[in-house]
User: What shape does this take?
Amino acid sequence: MPSSFVKRTPEQSHRCQSGLTLAEIVAALGILTIAVITMVSYFATIHRAAREGKNQGIATMQARTILEKLRDSPSAFAVAKTSEGYRETHEELLLENETDPEKNEVGRKSAMVFEGEGKAVLVAGEIYSLVVIVRWTEEGRQRNVVLESRTQEPSF
Assistant: This one.
């Protein structure tokens, strides 16, 4: 007799049925939701770290530029020797299509403002200590980069 005509008990026929129960579907959706939330938070962390790295790089480049200017320019060096020191501001602009304050998320043309300050202090003989600090605010936190160098007063 073919197996399709064999009479099965309820336990046997239940084991032969295939498919997922509601509990299995809910468990799978729960695991999938946790995985998706984890991935989204991971990407947000990566994005924030990349933005912070970019700003740190911009600030470091501005500090190096100010330091080189103080080493090479007698007039900038003279200003750095005063009590106020040498000051310079750099604004990092948004992309070309984001410069409209109505369209960008920041609401202004400048995405970030970096304020640089350089001071020259005589340490020994003709040797000066040059200290450059670049400050900016990122996500409500005050950040800064500090570079220090020793040099003689430039003369031309």
The CA atoms of residues 70 and 77 lie 5 Å apart. The longest strand covers residues 110-124. The helical segments are 10-16, 22-72, 74-81. The mean pLDDT is 83.
